[in-house]
Amino acid sequence: MDKKSIEESISALDMLDCQGMFLKDFLLTWDFSDDQIQAVFQVAEVFRKMRLANLSAKVFESGLAISLFRDNSTRTRFSFASACNMLGLELQDLDEGKSQIAHGETVRETANMISFMAEVIGIRDDMYIGKGNTYMRQVAEAVQAGYDAGILEQRPTLVNLQCDIDHPTQSMADAMHLIKYFGAKEKLEGKKIAMSWAYSPSYGKPLSVPQGIIGLMTRFGMDVVLAHPEGYELMPEVEEIALKNAHTAGGSFSKTHSMEEAFEGADIVYPKSWAPFEAMEKRTELYGRGDIEGIKALEKELLAQNAEFKNWECNEQLMQKTNGGDALYMHCLPADISGVSCNRGEVSAQVFERYRDLLYKQAGYKPYIIAAMIFLARFSNPGRKLTELAEAGKKRVH
Amino acid sequence: MDKKSIEESISALDMLDCQGMFLKDFLLTWDFSDDQIQAVFQVAEVFRKMRLANLSAKVFESGLAISLFRDNSTRTRFSFASACNMLGLELQDLDEGKSQIAHGETVRETANMISFMAEVIGIRDDMYIGKGNTYMRQVAEAVQAGYDAGILEQRPTLVNLQCDIDHPTQSMADAMHLIKYFGAKEKLEGKKIAMSWAYSPSYGKPLSVPQGIIGLMTRFGMDVVLAHPEGYELMPEVEEIALKNAHTAGGSFSKTHSMEEAFEGADIVYPKSWAPFEAMEKRTELYGRGDIEGIKALEKELLAQNAEFKNWECNEQLMQKTNGGDALYMHCLPADISGVSCNRGEVSAQVFERYRDLLYKQAGYKPYIIAAMIFLARFSNPGRKLTELAEAGKKRVH
Amino acid sequence: MDKKSIEESISALDMLDCQGMFLKDFLLTWDFSDDQIQAVFQVAEVFRKMRLANLSAKVFESGLAISLFRDNSTRTRFSFASACNMLGLELQDLDEGKSQIAHGETVRETANMISFMAEVIGIRDDMYIGKGNTYMRQVAEAVQAGYDAGILEQRPTLVNLQCDIDHPTQSMADAMHLIKYFGAKEKLEGKKIAMSWAYSPSYGKPLSVPQGIIGLMTRFGMDVVLAHPEGYELMPEVEEIALKNAHTAGGSFSKTHSMEEAFEGADIVYPKSWAPFEAMEKRTELYGRGDIEGIKALEKELLAQNAEFKNWECNEQLMQKTNGGDALYMHCLPADISGVSCNRGEVSAQVFERYRDLLYKQAGYKPYIIAAMIFLARFSNPGRKLTELAEAGKKRVH
Fold first, then answer.
1. Does residue C143 form part of some domain?
2. For A318-368, how does the pLDDT look when each residue is reduced to its tens digit (9 = 90+)?
3. Exposed e or buried b per residue across B220-258, where buried means at least 16 C-beta atoms within 10 angstroms of its C-beta
4. Which residue intervals of chain C are DSSP H helices?
5. Does some domain include residue C397?
């Protein structure tokens, strides 16, 4: 990876208007302009090239990155850790079980108490509809108020590591994967991507991945098809955003209740299970009431409902219907693989195996995407800062 | 924050005799001379100014900081993490559940095993009267013996992150808050501070905060009034220290069984719940015997006892009795706020809300105080080292 | 510690052929040549001298070290943390409970997902015979495949932090302790070391320590005697390695069912409890079948079997039989100390107490050994890199 290639990527960044990203939380991709979204890809690419050239990207001599995971995570946890480490921030996990939150702390209080020397706060809160993103905005308001009141000496930036609405670090890494796979962002225009529901023997999976995908991929002039059985609707407001995006970008956004139809001629397929929006709303309400019996009954109902759609499996037969029979298969991982992690799942072992390396590469962009999100929020002139880093030429491994 | 201001703070430090702090554990504030206490404030202030001036305070290229929390913590945990990170130490938490301590390790053994490359060990052990501070001293003796025997190549410094007797990082941060709020340490002379018990629907809260407050604030020439219902006595030996301090410093230390009387004309109020010392001694003994029924009976008894004093709530009516009706309200957080975190608690929502920003600022001094405690124990000539750091001028954020 | 002493140690390293260590996982000591084993001691010694001379050994500006502990650990956990920190890597623990492994991830997937920016992966997996080392090799294959496929930009190195077969960071630290204690590796020739089973009131302790000891100590021309009651056999393949090693190195490897015989004239004794190999195989199988009743029955049986050998205790009477009555007593810690951590255990309190400092020193070499293992796997020309570090002269503590 030579110096010139890095300089070119920085020059491309300098063409973009990304002023508004400074100090702005990254909560939903649709909060950002096309230039700003492009800036994330561009900075991520510079960081990738710098790493390949063994150049240090440590812009912080000290400082904390706080993570708060309210749901399990491997990829995102380690991606966030990698991104922060690359920039020079030390990760501290807020384990709510070990903190005093149970002992009467409010969101506002906790947010300030963990932020005295924090540059970034990453949060995963994806379990309950209407809760996760709301919580993140409460934290954002709290640290903003803390900063305005002179309590915090810096205003930490929030990065959404998956909420009930969007999963921006996932969808952005997915998009970067598409850009690298097809060669350029422009190559995505006119491509057909099928974001399809798929069967899983579990229930209650978040809607944030399919929502993130239709909310982002509609911006690149693609034909985005959303497929799911009746009853597995996404949040209407996100579908509206997808429609609006498609209109602006010159692609399309359509829906179908047939996986086959969605796969027909598709260049990219993204088959993944999720829970029905309305059921998730009901579940959130039941949890709120502490209605354990109601939750159990709902689980049973949902699993029975799922089981009606066991044929929604991404297998070779379906893949044959895609463009040239070799659409790019995507998944956020871990996937429910038929005969491997479950009897019958989202994808056949054969299809999964064929795309395994590409799936892992897809995941591999996430650390760079997260680092880019943090970087753009912390430096008002990102192009100049990257140039300084590249010119300083400090080695990552001595 | 200009260079001159930093230099002035360092010069003030150079006037103080803080030689004895080198390699000395920070366990109780009354283990330290007035100059040494002042040195902590002074170094904390230099670090704060350096951070505001974007100067790196990283004095360690590598090295570990070990934390051991035997009770929940948010503020102190993140403050310790922030302080260590600012100095260049990586935090490693000794989670006793994941270690082999249950499998036969002695305190002496564990202390040495975690310390091979440790510069500092921070411990919270505040649950049992007669235990926490004793444990810290055992750890201190163990690492001292390890160092003397050539097992440890450096003698890690202990920092008390709250024990059964004192909570020095809290009381010192509280004092720094007072110094900043009133403008100078000298301005504290003659001020009246009411350290008062307050009602809480929980029981068994440590005594270390009120003890830390009366043990420290009596050193600044203040009129320190301790108020609590009968039966909520503190440890007699700490009260003696408070008396002695007040005598030396020219202030006063008095006690009352009336919250109103304590608040009368007070410049500062610190209403906070704690458990009665004798009950805590009994509880420690019951735990030692594994007497579960006895513990349950004691809990019930304590909660009933607490409930007799529900009127010990810091509310606007009481605040009206303070000097000018606007005494500074303090709390170590989290507070039991009436109508917010409980039906009836230590403080009314109205009072808490009015002082919220100041309470958060109060907490914000803790990272600097901890960093200063570590720094003074690790560098024999702190003034020169700070001057070197300031003159090196390395940026914290590039 | 002067510069010349460091240079001498580096020169000694340069005499050794350790080319093959670059990018090679450290799983079993017998995977490495004598020169390579010696190189680990040599690098560990350079790091120790550099630390004593306050020189930074930070060769990584950024990068992650991943730890995965499937069993409790204090020493190894903190040694690994210390080693990684010294080299500039930030430790991230893969807590399987918090990850999505339960949710369908394969070993191959997890291994890649945590490795995007990882330089080293340390694993402890010692509970089940036939499982731990196998798991490590699966992880190694997975990251190799990921690297070959261009998924990983670097191939992280694995370090075995204890498996079912070997405990190389322990045995190598133990050997370094012997070298330092007796003055030189050459001084070990002809020394008699008794690796003896000892009674413990617990069961199911791993075989990896005795196996690691006989597999390594037989390389130094020592007379290695393995002693245990009938029924406490080690894995036959490791005994074969010990025999072969002894033959090559010019020492001996013998077995006895008498602790007294083993101690007779010994220069070093290492009395430690372990479970019988066959019982461990049976246990692994029972766990595999989820046969809880069978496991309980086996536990009972094993404890009863152990209890027949309560006289296998290292006490002063036995120590009198050793060479001059003052053989070096070793243990990997924590030890079951009679009258301290249990009624009757592996060692009497008197013997343990007499050797306590030496035991702690023994443990103190582990951070350096681990750092050396990582370093030799990450740098193709370790001697030159160490020279650069020493000449750069960057201070660890400023």
1. yes
2. 999 999 999 999 999 999 999 998 999 999 999 999 999 999 999 999 999
3. bbbbbbbbbbeebebbeebbebbbebbeebebbbebeee
4. 3-14, 34-52, 75-87, 107-113, 132-148, 168-182, 208-217, 236-249, 259-263, 277-289, 292-307, 316-319, 349-364, 366-378, 382-392
5. no
Task: Annotate C282-303 with three-state secondary structure.
Answer: HHHHHHHHCCHHHHHHHHHHHH
Question: Do A175 and A206 belong together in one domain?
Answer: yes
A383: helix, coil or strand?
Answer: helix
The string of DSSP letters for A302-369 reads HHHHHHTTTT--B-HHHHTTSGGG-PEE---S---EETTTBSS-SEEHHHHHHHHHHHHHHHHTHHHH
Assigned token pair, B205:
């809260």
Rounded to two decimals, the pTM is: 0.97
Do A269 and A384 share a structural domain?
no
Q: Which helix (H) or strand (E) holds A75?
A: helix A75-87
Quote the DSSP letter at residue B55: B
**A53-82 pLDDT, tens digit each:** 999 999 999 999 999 998 888 899 999 999
Res. B104 pLDDT band, cuts 50 70 90 = low
Q: Please, what is the Cα angle at B93 between B87 and B99, to 5 degrees?
A: 150
Please count the structural domains in chain B. 2
Neighbouring chains to A with at least 3 Cβ pairs closer than 8 Å: B, C
Q: Does residue A334 have a cis peptide bond before it, meaning omega lies within 30 degrees of 0? A: yes
Cross-chain Cβ contact C114/A396 below 8 Å: no
Taking CB atoms and an 8 Å limit, are B104 and C337 in contact across chains?
yes
Q: What angle do CA B308, B309, B311 make, to 5 degrees?
A: 125
C138-151 pLDDT, tens per residue?
999 999 999 999 99
Return the partners of chain B (3 or more C-beta pairs < 8 Å): A, C
- Residue C96: pLDDT band (50, 70, 90) is confident
- Residue A95 sits at the chain B interface (C-beta within 8 Å): no
Tell whether C198 is covered by a domain: yes
Cα–Cα distance for residue pair A84/A64, rounded to 1 Å: 9
CA dist A149 and A62 (Å) reads 24
CB atoms within 10 A of CB A2: 9
Using pLDDT thresholds of 50, 70 and 90, give the confidence band for residue B101. low
Closest CA to C259 of C308, C224, C220, C311: C311
3-state DSSP assignment of residue C196 = strand
CB-based contact C369:C169 (threshold 8 Å): yes
- The two beta strands, B268-272 and C118-124, are unpaired
Asked if residue A272 and residue A130 are part of one domain, the reply reads no
CA gap C119, C117 in Å, rounded: 7
**B397 in any annotated domain:** no
b vs e for C167-198, b when ≥16 Cβ sit within 10 Å of the residue's Cβ?
Answer: bbbbbbbbbbbbbebbeebeebeebbbbbbbb
- Which amino acid would we find at residue B299? E
Chain B hits for C395, CB-CB cut-off 8 Å, are 61
In the predicted model, what is the mean pLDDT of chain A?
Answer: 95
Owning domain of residue B102: 3-165+366-392
Residue C209, C-beta contacts closer than 8 angstroms, at least 6 positions apart: C167, C170, C171, C272, C274, C332
Which range, C73-77, C179-183, C281-285, is most confident? C179-183
Contact criterion met (CB below 8 Å) for C9 and C40? no
Residues of B in contact with A152 (CB under 8 A): 364
Q: Which residues of A touch C119 (CB under 8 A)?
A: 397
Global ipTM = 0.95
B342 in helix, strand or coil? strand
* CATH, residue C357: 3.40.50.1370
B292 and B179 inside one domain: yes
Q: What is the pLDDT of residue A389?
A: 96
- In this structure, are A29 and A81 located in the same domain? yes
User: What does the pLDDT read at residue B102?
Assistant: 52
